[in-house]
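Structure ticket #2291
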Amino acid sequence: MREAVDDFAGHLAAVRNRSAHTVRAYVGDVVSLLDHARRMGCAELPELDLAVLRSWLAKQRTTGAARTSLARRAASARTFSAWAHRTGLLPADVAGALSSPRAHRDLPTVLRADQAAALVEAPGRFAAVPPSPPAEDDSRPSSPAGDGSGPSSPDGEDSRPSSPDGKGSRPTTPTGDGSGPGSPGSSGPPAADGVAEAVLLRDRALLELLYGTGVRISEACGLDVADVDHARRVVRVFGKGGRERAVPYGVPAQRALDEWLRHGRPALAAPHSRDALLLGARGGRLNPTTARRIVGGYAAGTGLPPISPHGLRHSAATHLLEGGADLRAVQELLGHSSLASTQIYTHVSVERLRAAYRQAHPRA
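Resolution: structure written out below.
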């Protein structure tokens, strides 16, 4: 069975072109399924049947798995069963008739347009205050948000974990790499000031990109310098499944990117930076986990509701639709393979209309 799991992982990565995250999730589900089957007396893979699959899902349910998790695990089982049948490992596609609970889709959290503007402009407000020098101790980031950049991994990605968000208090610096704004009148060594200013320029570019394009956080962190077409104001994005799309961005994002590339990136660039567009404070490619902490840190520091990079993506899509954009165009911009994924944002707009109606109409 181990060999079958390894071959299935190779199929997902090489043939289906799934992301590393998807491969890990599906393989983990299949390992859990086969372990359950073995405890039920299935010594060999061909002994797997629908009753075992249903028993596995039922056990997941009794242990408190959410409907979305059950739906994904059922999808993993169906994908594995179909592949095993095609390759001759199973005499039949035993999971073909396996049903799964419909995942409940909550309406996404979105910011108002003025709140989104306040968030993306937050690094500029912090830049007005002279920065304090970076922390001496590389192992203890000084901020709730955390830059997360440390000794780079072989692929040039920042990998040092950051401290958790400090809810309820304004962070000393939203970027959290020890290079953000300090108290008024403070000053640090010129080199430290240069890094601090570069980090603020990077944060502004990151926030403008996320809200201005609606790209996923993994897509933003995966951008290379050559992916930015300054003349046409378009970024080339590689999304899920390796699908490529061109996403336009506006003038504020253009200014932020120009400032970052002219004055910020050269201050942080190192030999291991390669062609990465967004860098951590020590020169590696900006880590998506770190970028999430940056967004959360600025939201907390600006007094906004808790928001994630995906929340900015939701906000961008909602504001596009509310501004009159075509649903099909928004689908292309977001990189959704199905229009059904984009239609969730029409529900958000309807909910806002209902709220406005209840508040304003005398007979609501």
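Closing remark: Confidence is low (pLDDT under 50) at residues 128-190.
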